[in-house]
Structures are given as C-alpha cells and as structure tokens.
Amino acid sequence: MTISRIISIDPGTSKFGVSLLALTTKIELINSNQVYLEGKSLEERLNFLYNYLNNYLSSNSVQEIALEETFIAPFDKKAGAYKFNLDAPLKLSMSRGIIWSLAGKYGIKVFEYSNGDVKKAITRNHQASKKMMMDQVSKIFGKKFEEDEADSVAIGVTHLIAKKLSMQKVS
Length: 171
Fold this sequence. Notes:
The chain is built from five helices and five strands, in the order βββαβαβααα. By secondary structure, it is of the alpha/beta class. A five-stranded mixed beta sheet has the order 3-2-1-4-5, with helices on both faces. The radius of gyration is 16 Å and the shape is globular. The mean pLDDT is about 90.
C-alpha cells in the first residue's frame, strides 16, 4: 500500500538530481538520476530542464515535490564580501522557478528543507560533509549514486521522514 509518491529534486544550471520515492511501510526508491542539462546557453539549459521535468511529471503520478532551500553563505564582515559569486544563487533561482512553475501546472505542493535539516536527517549531523552524505545514502539503498543524484535522494528521504512523523502525530 503506497501512502505517498514524491519527486525530489536537487536543482542546478548545468546538472541536477531527480528522484522518485514512495512511502509505504518503508521508504522506497523507485528511481533516481543525475541529469546533465543540454545546451550551451543558460536559456537552452533552462529550456531542457523545463522539458525534462515536464515530461517526468506528466509520466509519473506524484503528490508532492521536495526541494532543498537555496543556501546563501552569510556576508563575511572581515573580508567585506561574500565568499562566493552571488551570480550562482541567482541562476539557481531560475531553475527553482521552473520547478515551482511546473508544480503549479500539475497542482503539486512543494516542500522545502534546509541543507542542515537534510544532513541531520540522513547522518544525524547537520554539518556532515558531502562524502558523508553520499556514503550514507549509498548505505541506505545499497547502491552508488552520483553527487546531485545522492542529494536528491537525501532530500526525498528527509521529506518522507518528516511526512511519516507528521502522520504518526495525527494517528
């Protein structure tokens, strides 16, 4: 008996991770992938993202989408600047906008989780390294994942844990 089917996405502007998971008596990974966006220009890559996810959503019945919140490092007062290029989170927001738009098109609710919440749900350590995260997701499902694919699986697992906990409170 499936209680919920969700898609989880780790968006990007050159590649992204996407996973389809189900909550039955346990969390089941139906499929996952790391997808490289085709096209030389940002416009072409974003169009590829839109078409890919539109096809994915039209062929997979899901009730919810899980995303990681955009993380923006705090301003470094000592250096007098941000420690990264501010252009990156702005471009990431374009990918996220496509996801939110498609959620509206298909009537799917979006849930977001902080990077720390995802790390804590998967490793019990909100400051876990990327390697720790990938190792733990591989251990849970008994297979190796590419980086963004592992992130999307971790985001989906986090969402389904939160969903299961909220369902237990109602019961």
